[in-house]
Amino acid sequence: MATILAIETSCDETAVAIVKNRQVLSSIVSSQIELHKTYGGVVPELASRQHLEIINPCISQAMSEAGVDWQGIDAIAATCTPGLVGALLVGVAAAKTLAIVHHKPFLGVHHLEGHIYASYLAQPELQPPFLCLLVSGGHTSSIYVKDYGEYQLLGSTRDDAAGEAFDKVARLLNLGYPGGPIIDRLAQQGNPKAFELPEGRISLPNGNGYHPYDFSFSGMKTAVLRLTEKLEAEGAIPVADVAASFQNTVAKVLTKRSVKCALDFGLDTITIGGGVAANSGLRKYLTEAAEKYSLKVYFPPLKFCTDNAAMIGCAAAQHFNLGHTSSLDLEVQSRMSVDRVMELYQ
Ligand code: KG4
Ligand code: ZN
User: Average pLDDT in the 315-330 region?
Assistant: First the structure.
């Protein structure tokens, strides 16, 4: 049983958790949404500075809420890739310092592997293989979880992430930030079939049809822009109908592609991660598809879907139990494919 102190600072959440294998002893998440709201998106320099200001209080709070002392901690972990380099550096530097001072091993964790581990936190009996659909503000990926630490990226977005598309559409409708929850709320009052939007299919070379698993959301966003310009010229924009139609298209596309991945690879389980997992349209479509194709679908509680350090600690605990640790020379990286996670360990 490994007890891990884990730190997550890859984007705009400063998070620290204490995790014992798949059990969360404490999980502190301090969101910077208010700080970035004025700018309509995350400002990297502000994010790093804010992480630096509150990381120490978050660590103290996580330790005291878990009721553990340093002797009770087996290893210190931090997200080291992918993410904003300045933001990642704050968490990794804090984790390495604690590891040196308290003579503990250090583990760097891949942020997307962390999101996959949110499913293990929510379903402690879950075992690979399964498909993880990861839909956040920064990522949209369908990941085939073959085994612990063994991943294959089946599909991903070619442009905007799903959450980013929600945020951009909300901005062009003047709804505020972050856009996902606002569009979701408005969509409940709108007609999802009011407007038809493109599904963002990726053409294969030489006109050989479409890529079966990849996503594209920027065309959908542009279509919403053109639609609202047209509607505005004609009179008022039926905002709820636009929101419902957009959400419906995104949910349909995410469901179609991930169900195809699962069926093609003989997987009977789909788990969801990232902030867009909260979306009511996606939940509805995936639950219906699961029934139709006899698949199991797991939506972890939202506190594990959005960025948090508990999922990072859970991934680190598994690696630590398998004898993996990272070098103190491990550097942060803004990008790294999830199938390369084992390169982080020695
Ligand atoms: O996972 P997350 O908290 O942070 C990232 O790592 O990106 O995801 C945040 C994203 C934002 O783009 C937000 O608009 C979106 O998740 N989101 C939603 C909903 N709640 C949050 N998108 C659609 N529907 C929602 N209910
Ligand atoms: Zn994330």
Answer: 98
Please work out whether the CB of residue 254 comes within 6 Å of at least one atom of ligand 1. no
The two three-digit tokens of residue 69, written as one number: 């002392």
Tell me which of 3.30.420.40, 3.40.50.12780, 3.40.50.450, 3.40.30.10 is the CATH number of domain 3-116+305-344. Answer: 3.30.420.40
Residue 111 Cα: closest atom of ligand 1? 6
| Ligand 1 near 178 CB (within 6 A) | yes
Mutation pick for ligand 1 pocket among 306, 311, 312 (CB with most ligand atoms within 8 Å): 306
Q: What is the DSSP letter of 297?
A: E
Indicate the pLDDT class of residue 336, thresholds 50, 70 and 90: very high
Contact in structure between 312 and 29 (CB atoms under 8 Å): no
pLDDT band at 108 (very low <50, low <70, confident <90, very high): very high
In sequence order, what are the residues at sequence separation of 6 or more whose Cβ sits closer than 8 angstroms to the Cβ of residue 104? 70, 73, 74, 75, 76, 98
Question: Using a 6 Å cutoff on CB, does residue 166 contact ligand 1?
Answer: yes
Q: What is the DSSP letter of 322?
A: T
| Atom number of ligand 1 nearest to Cα 280 | 26
Tokens of 210: 């479409």
